[in-house]
From TrEMBL:
The keyword DNA-binding applies. It comes from Altericroceibacterium spongiae. Residues 13-81 form the HTH gntR-type domain. SUPFAM superfamilies: PLP-dependent transferases (SSF53383), Winged helix' DNA-binding domain (SSF46785). One of its GO terms (molecular function) is transaminase activity. This is PLP-dependent aminotransferase family protein.
Length: 462
C-alpha cells in the first residue's frame, strides 16, 4: 500500500476537491504511479482529521475522472494510464459549431447527484412508464426552475409538461399547432434545429425580416397576411444566431400583431437563464392566451439529461394535443434523468452548476469581445453561449472555409438562414472548447483569418 497523504492545506475549494487536485498533481509528477494502492477511506480520513464521507466523495470524483479504480475486497488503486481530465480536452477539430455549455460544472457534480438519487422515495417509479405529462416530482422541479431561472410567473406543476429536451419540445409544439404543409413564421435567421424539424415534418418556414432590435413587427404582419400562417416561433432572449434580445417595446408590438392576426407563439426560451437583470417578461407571461413556451436544462445544466419542459396556454385542446404527441412520439417522457434534475433542483446542485456555467460564459463572452472587437455584435446580455460576427455571406463562407482548413469547426453560414432578407454572418459557439487557453487561441486565429480575408478582399484577391 502506498503511504500517501495529500497536501490539502492550500486553496479555498471544498476539501474533497482539494484531495482530488492533490491526487491529480501527484499522478502528474510521478509520486503516484499506476498500480499503487491508496489508503482505505477510513484510514485516510483519520490521518487528515476528516469525515469518512468527505474522503469517500473525493475517491468517487477521482474515479469518475479516471485516476483511480476501486475493487471490492481489494482496495483502491491508481488506474492504468491515469491521466488528467484536461488531457482529454480539445482533441480533434476545435468545436465552435455546437452550442453547448461548458461541461466541467456538471461533470463535477454528476457522481454525487446520482448517489443522492438512489435515496429518493420515488426512484422505483422510474422503471415504469410515466404519465404523458411526466412524474409529479419532475414537473414540480420544472415549474420551480422556470419560475426561478426563467422568471415565468405562470409556471406551476399542473401546467408544466415534461419533454425530452428542447428539440423534442419544439417538435411537440409544432405538431400541436400546425399540420404538414402549413407555414410557420420564424426569424429570417434562426436556430438550425428549427430548419431541420421543418424539413423532416414537412412544415413550410417563412423567415420574417429582422432589424437590429429583432423581428420587425410590420414585416411580421405582412408575412402573416401573405401566408395565412397561424404559428410564429421566436427566440426572444439572446436569439440564436444573432444574440439579439427583444426589448419591452418590441415584444409588445409583436404581441399586438399576433393578436390581430390570430397567431400562436412558440417561445423558444433556451437562453433566458443567461439574461441580464431587468430583461423584459417572457411571451408566456405577456400573452399567456397564445404562447406555448419551450424551455430546457441543456444550456445551463447538462445537455445529456435530455430534459425539457413545455408550458402551454390555458387551452385544454392544445394541452390534449401536446399529450397525444408525447404518446405518439415516445409514449412517455424518460423519468430517470428527470429524477436526477429533480434532486438537483431540490438540493441546490442545479443552481450551483448553472451559476458556474453562467460565470464561465460571462468570462468567455468578454474574452471574445476583447479579441474580436467591432467584428462581433455585442450580445443582448452580458454573457452568451454563442456570439455573432455579422458579415456578407461570401465573406462568411470564406471565413468558414479558412477555419475548417485550420481544424476549427464552425456552424455553416447558411445553416441558420431561412429567407434572403436574413442577416448573414458567422456564429461562434463558446462552450464546446474545454479550456480557456485553447478558446483564446482559437478566437485569435478566427480574428486573424477575418483580418486576412478583409485584406484579400480589399486587394481583389480570393
Amino acid at each position: 500500500m502506498k503511504d500517501w497523504e495529500p497536501d490539502i492545506s492550500k486553496g479555498s475549494a471544498p476539501v474533497y476537491e482539494r484531495i482530488v487536485s492533490a491526487l491529480e498533481n501527484d499522478v502528474l509528477e510521478g509520486r503516484l504511479t499506476p498500480g499503487d494502492r491508496l489508503p482505505p477511506q477510513r484510514e485516510l480520513a483519520y490521518r487528515l482529521s476528516l469525515s469518512v464521507g468527505t474522503v469517500s466523495r473525493a475517491y468517487v470524483e477521482a474515479e469518475r475522472r479516471g485516476f483511480i479504480s476501486s475493487h471490492v475486497g481489494r482496495g483502491t488503486f491508481i488506474a492504468d494510464r491515469a491521466k488528467p481530465h484536461s488531457s482529454m480536452q480539445d482533441s480533434g477539430p476545435l468545436d465552435m459549431a455546437h452550442n453547448i455549455p461548458p461541461l466541467d460544472p456538471a461533470e463535477r457534480w454528476i457522481g454525487e447527484g446520482l448517489i443522492r438519487v438512489r435515496q429518493r422515495a420515488d426512484l422505483a417509479a422510474a422503471v415504469n412508464y410515466a404519465p404523458p405529462e411526466g412524474l409529479p416530482s419532475i414537473r414540480e422541479a420544472g415549474a420551480s426552475w422556470l419560475k426561478r431561472r426563467h422568471s415565468v410567473t405562470r409556471a406551476t406543476t399542473d401546467r408544466v409538461i415534461q419533454c425530452n429536451g428542447g428539440q423534442h419540445g419544439l417538435a411537440l409544439a409544432f405538431a400541436a399547432l400546425a399540420r404538414p404543409g402549413d407555414t410557420i413564421l420564424c426569424e429570417a435567421a434562426t436556430y438550425p434545429g428549427i430548419r431541420t424539424l421543418a424539413d423532416h415534418a414537412g412544415y413550410r418556414l417563412r423567415g420574417v425580416f429582422m432589424d437590429e432590435r429583432g423581428i420587425d413587427p410590420e414585416a411580421l404582419a405582412r408575412c402573416a397576411h401573405e401566408t395565412g400562417a397561424k404559428v410564429l416561433v421566436a427566440i426572444p432572449t439572446l436569439q440564436n444566431p444573432t444574440t439579439i434580445t427583444l426589448d419591452a417595446a418590441r415584444r409588445a408590438e409583436i404581441i399586438e400583431v399576433t393578436r390581430a392576426n390570430d397567431l400562436m407563439i412558440v417561445e423558444d426560451d433556451a437562453y433566458r437563464v443567461f439574461a441580464d437583470a431587468g430583461t423584459p417578461h417572457c411571451f408566456a407571461d405577456l400573452a399567456p392566451e397564445r404562447t406555448l413556451m419551450v424551455a430546457g436544462v441543456s444550456k445551463a445544466v447538462a445537455p445529456g439529461l435530455r430534459l425539457g419542459f413545455l408550458l402551454p396556454p390555458d387551452d385544454e385542446e392544445v394541452r390534449d394535443r401536446l399529450l397525444l404527441g408525447v404518446r405518439a412520439f415516445g409514449y412517455s417522457p424518460p423519468s430517470l434523468s428527470g429524477l436526477v434534475f429533480s434532486q438537483w433542483e431540490q438540493d441546490g446542485t442545479a443552481d450551483r452548476i448553472a451559476d458556474d456555467v453562467i460565470a464561465e460564459s460571462e468570462t468567455r463572452t468578454r474574452m471574445a469581445a476583447s479579441i474580436l472587437g467591432n467584428a462581433m455584435a455585442m450580445p443582448g446580455a452580458g454573457r452568451s453561449l454563442h456570439v455573432w460576427m455579422p458579415m456578407p455571406m461570401l465573406d462568411a463562407e470564406r471565413l468558414s472555409a479558412r477555419a475548417l482548413r485550420a481544424s476549427i469547426a464552425l456552424t455553416p453560414p447558411d445553416g441558420p438562414i431561412v429567407d434572403a432578407v436574413a442577416p448573414s454572418g458567422v456564429r461562434l459557439c463558446l462552450g464546446g472548447i474545454r479550456s480557456r487557453d485553447a478558446l483564446e487561441q482559437t478566437l485569435r486565429d478566427i480574428a486573424a483569418m477575418q483580418f486576412s480575408a478583409d485584406s484579400s478582399a480589399a486587394h481583389g484577391l480570393v
